């Protein structure tokens, strides 16, 4: 159930979704490595607009921002009044390069970065709505990620993960009115299509937004092994 995302390169996504994007309002992407809730994130809406949206879903009828949701469960999305209409009529794709999850180890929480095995993008299934922001005195587009059970690899860290869409399913997700067909896309993403590595605790800081956020942290045993290997090589 990710609450922090990373999107620093959307070039391949734009190519893959070129037949669906009708209005590119994002233009040149502003790279972000540690995106928390309530901040802008690009999304492709089912009206053809690719634009920056508010990460944190608010239905149009919400009385305040206290009802904001970052995630919607795939198992109950059609049953919940909050999400039901958006699932029917306002679906979107949220492209990311990866997301963060925290593993509970003793009393500490260790951050991990989850990304595509080929270091490409992950296309997350989402929903959107327009909400009138009284502070801005304007309507804003708000989005939520849809989640499902985690695959075995990620399940060692967290029991939920985002629903990830394949390129071939983009059009079905955005434009198919047959919800039975849409529901078939709520699949657990395969273990062999993601990679996970530990990152610096600096990512815990909401304002820390640097490429080092996603850099792999070498554990003590890895460093020891490297030293041993170097020592063995020096004998010859």
Automatic annotation (TrEMBL):
EC number of this enzyme: 3.4.-.-
**Superkingdom field:** Bacteria
Q: List, alphabetically, the InterPro entries matched.
A: SRAP (IPR003738), SRAP-like (IPR036590)
Gene3D superfamilies hit by this protein: SOS response associated peptidase-like
Q: Can you provide one Gene Ontology molecular function annotated for this UniProt record?
A: peptidase activity
Task: Please provide the Gene Ontology terms (biological process) for this protein.
Answer: protein-DNA covalent cross-linking repair; proteolysis
One Pfam family, short name? SRAP
> Which terms are listed as keywords in the entry?
Covalent protein-DNA linkage, DNA damage, DNA-binding, Hydrolase, Lyase, Protease
The family note in this entry says: Belongs to the SOS response-associated peptidase family.
- The name this protein carries in UniProt is Abasic site processing protein
């Amino acid at each position: 159930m990710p609450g922090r995302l990373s999107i620093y390169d959307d070039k391949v996504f734009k190519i893959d979704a070129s037949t669906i994007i009708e209005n590119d309002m994002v233009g040149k992407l502003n790279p972000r490595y540690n995106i928390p809730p309530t901040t802008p994130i690009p999304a492709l809406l089912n009206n053809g607009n690719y634009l920056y949206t508010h990460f944190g879903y608010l239905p149009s009828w919400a009385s305040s921002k206290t009802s904001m949701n970052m995630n919607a469960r795939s198992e109950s999305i059609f049953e919940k009044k909050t999400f039901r209409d958006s699932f029917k009529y306002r679906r979107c794709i949220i492209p990311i390069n990866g997301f963060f999850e925290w593993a509970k180890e003793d009393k500490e929480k260790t951050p991990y970065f989850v990304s595509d095995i080929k270091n490409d993008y992950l296309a997350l299934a989402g929903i959107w709505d327009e909400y009138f922001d009284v502070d801005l005195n304007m309507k804003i587009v708000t989005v939520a990620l849809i989640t499902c059970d985690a695959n075995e690899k990620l399940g060692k860290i967290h029991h939920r993960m985002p629903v990830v869409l394949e390129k071939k399913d983009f059009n079905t997700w955005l434009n198919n009115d047959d919800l039975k067909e849409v529901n078939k896309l709520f699949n657990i993403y395969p273990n062999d299509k993601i990679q996970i590595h530990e990152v610096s605790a600096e990512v815990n800081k909401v304002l820390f937004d640097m490429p080092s956020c996603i850099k792999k942290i070498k554990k003590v045993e890895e460093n020891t092994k490297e030293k041993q290997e170097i020592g063995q090589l020096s004998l010859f």
